[in-house]
Amino acid sequence: MTKYFSRLLGLITVLLLLPTQLFAAGGADLPDLMVLVADTRKFKGWEAWWGNIYNEGHLAFALITTLIIPVAGVILGLLADVVMSRLGIDLKNRALAEH
After folding, report:
1. DSSP, residue by residue, 44-72
2. Burial of 96 (C-beta count, 10 Å sphere; 0-12/13-18/19+)
3. Which one of 26, 43, 85, 95 is least enclosed by Cβ atoms within 10 Å?
4. Is the pTM of this model over 0.85?
5. Once rounded to an integer, what is the mean pLDDT over residues 57-71?
6. Which long-range contacts (CB under 8 A, 24 or more apart) does 11-16 make?
């Protein structure tokens, strides 16, 4: 059983990695086939800013995104705590209300 599972896993690995090897074998004489840019002509405000950061450098876009997501999570979590406390849901007490 282990022998067949090992062969199946090897076959799946080869099938998944084969396209990457074929694309990587092109060499340096091929032109860039894909350009990754965002069309920001119709955007205004923060959407245009966000698209321009993406167009200027993907590393800066990744770093800013990595910083914004946790900050947004904390802000939304605190907002949810405020809303639930206004509704009467006590999140600070771990005692069960049902008896």
Report:
1. -THHHHHHHHHHH-HHHHHHHHHHHHHHH
2. exposed
3. 95
4. no
5. 92
6. none
Secondary structure element (H or E) that encloses residue 12, with its range: helix 2-24
pLDDT above 80 for 30: no
pLDDT for 28 equals 57
**83 is written with which tokens?**
């809303």
Q: Where are the domains of the chain?
A: 42-90
Q: Which among 43, 64, 45 is positioned nearest to 54, based on CA atoms?
A: 64
Count of CB atoms situated within 10 Å of the CB of 69: 10
Count, residues in the chain: 99
The token pair that represents 36 in the structure block: 């990754």
For residue 78, what pLDDT band results from cuts at 50, 70 and 90? very high
Whether residue 61 contacts residue 53, with contact meaning beta carbons closer than 8 Å, is answered with yes
Percentage, residues of the chain above pLDDT 70: 77
